[in-house]
Amino acid sequence: MARYFTDEHEWIDVEGDTATVGITDFAQGQLGDIVFVELPDVGSVIDKGKDAAVVESVKAASDVYAPISGEIMETNEALEDDPALVNTSPEEDGWFFKMTIGDKSQFDGLMDQAAYKSFCDGL
Amino acid sequence: MSDDTEDTIAETETLPLDAWHRRKGARMVPFAGYHMPIQYEGIVTEHNWTRNQAGLFDVSHMGQLMVTGDKAAAELEKLLPGAIASLKPGKVRYSLLLDDDGGILDDLMVTNATPWIEGDEEAGTEGRWGEPAYYLVVNGAMKWDDIAHLREHLDDDVTLTHMDEHALIALQGPSAATALNRVMRNVIDDMVFMESVVHDFGEWPLRITRAGYTGEDGFEISLPAEFAESFADRLCAEIEVRPVGLGARDSLRLEAGLPLYGHDITTETDPVSADLGFALTKRRREEGGWMGHAPVMQAFAEGPAQKRVGLAIDGRMPAREGALVYSGDTQVGRITSGGFSPTLERPIAMGYVDTALAAEGTELEVEVRKKRLPATVASLPFVPHRYHRGK
């Protein structure tokens, strides 16, 4: 399983034709206490770079953009009752949604773990 | 990810406690032209700490002004709708600066800071009150406009001093008095809410005011900037005290139903619709003689078209500033500040709605990202005030 990172601080796990998307530990640290996550509708088709989800912290609402284009197949229902999962387990239990991968060339230009780490260190 | 609330300001200045905040692990953001700590440990933790113990807030960005002169009270009464002349030394009043149309230019705290001058037996002089002095604390983002407004309209016989070499530190929470009393024995024993004293603590000349912006008992302490770090360290040495950032300050004041200038009150709102009529003393309403008197009295007589209310929102999704309020298909209002209440663990908001729909319990809807959220008009404050009013 390959994990990619975007410069918008999202992670993407790729398994076969499915991508699981969440926000990184760095991102949740920046956002602070998360009180609500608005997830996309299952079955909706979202283009790369378009609004896919909204993360509400105590302080503000922040958009999460679709890192690739595809159809939403499943969303993380655990976030409805416990949005703080994004704070406590951002890169595992706090995943946002699973989507289809239309075109694998979309991963070109995304970062791997090491590249993302040096990206964050440079911020 | 994008954060849609943080403004970037070209020349952001630093405050006296800047390095202290960074050492305490604060995340700094630009606010009101300064680098300010938005949080240290986390907004919810800091919020709850303030409700249960005592939070130390650096509010040195706020404008601290001193207005002195024999005519100071009379001159201030030309610009403020509250009774200043009858405010006794050591007493504090919440007031407003209004424009000619009755719009709110800023909200502020006014303290009668007239000094008591001790008598000298050898010289044969008796104790007496010194030159009348009024200490004003205004919003950081508005202070330059306020100073210009005051300079323009106050008589030349009155002196306006911007105390820009002073820091302002708030200590807020149910344990604030315990902690402060341990640091400075008996200084605050007799003080109640909205009273102010000057006190020399060692080499630190302090002005201690029992007031704040969280709904809790607490104090605001003004002191020369050069002593701010050692004073903050001294307070934080107490087990009850931890530093708290701007993020929690905002969620605390929202729960306490206190309006935030530039959001809940602006020049587009007046004291009547903002439900701040308590800041307009009865005698001064009748006698007038203050900027904005005629339009404000007209608003009282006619009743406001809209009123500032609290809204308790169903579910968990917060409604933020700018969200529109509906009754059926009709837009009847707008949210002016909103967020998630850590104390109540639900979204709460403040906003303006049509007066006919402003009664507590009225069921309305708020639109957030094209979704309608059920909302109920709630009485303010959302979380009861716990000021120390004495007997």
Q: Provide the CATH architecture of the domain at 18-59 and 168-255 in chain B.
A: 2-Layer Sandwich
Task: Tell me, rounded to a whole number, the average pLDDT of chain A.
Answer: 93
- Which fold name corresponds to the CATH topology of the domain at 18-59 and 168-255 in chain B? Gyrase A, domain 2
Mean pLDDT of chain B: 95
Give the neighbour order of strands across the main sheet of chain A. Answer: 1-2-3-9-8-5
Q: Helical element count of chain B?
A: 9
- Helical content class of chain A: 10-25%
Give the beta-strand count of chain B.
22
H/E element order of chain A: EEEHEEEEEHHEH
Structural features, described:
The complex is a heterodimer of chains A (123) and B (391). Chain A has 123 residues and is an alpha+beta fold. Chain A has one domain (2-107): RNA polymerase II/Efflux pump adaptor protein, barrel-sandwich hybrid domain (OB fold (Dihydrolipoamide Acetyltransferase, E2P)), CATH 2.40.50.100. Chain A has four helices and nine strands. Chain A has helices at residues 25-31, 78-81, 85-88, 113-121; strands spanning 2-5, 10-15, 18-23, 34-38, 45-46, 51-57, 61-65, 70-75, 97-100. In chain A, the strands form two sheets. In chain A, strands 1-2-3-9-8-5 form a six-stranded antiparallel beta sheet. A three-stranded antiparallel beta sheet of chain A has the order 4-6-7. Chain A starts with a strand and ends with a helix. The mean pLDDT of chain A is 93. Chain B is α+β, with helices and mostly antiparallel strands and 391 residues long. In chain B, 19% of the residues lie in helices and 33% in strands. Chain B is built from nine helices and 22 strands. Chain B has helices at 18-23, 43-52, 72-77, 143-153, 176-183, 228-236, 246-255, 282-287, 293-302; strands spanning 2-3, 27-31, 34-39, 54-58, 63-68, 92-98, 104-112, 116-117, 128-129, 133-138, 159-162, 166-172, 196-201, 204-209, 218-224, 241-243, 306-313, 324-327, 330-341, 346-354, 363-368, 371-378. Chain B has a six-stranded mixed beta sheet. In chain B, strands 17-20-19-18-21-22 form a six-stranded antiparallel barrel. In chain B, strand 14 and strand 15 (218-224) form a beta hairpin. In chain B, helix 2 packs across helix 7 (246-255). The radius of gyration of chain B is 21 Å and the shape is globular. The termini of chain B are far apart. Mean pLDDT of chain B is 95; it is low at 1-6. Chain A binds chain B through residues 8-10, 23, 27, 30-33, 35-36, 38, 54-64, 83, and chain B through 1-6, 38-39, 42-45, 47, 247, 250-251, 316-318, 320, 339-340, 342, 347, 369.
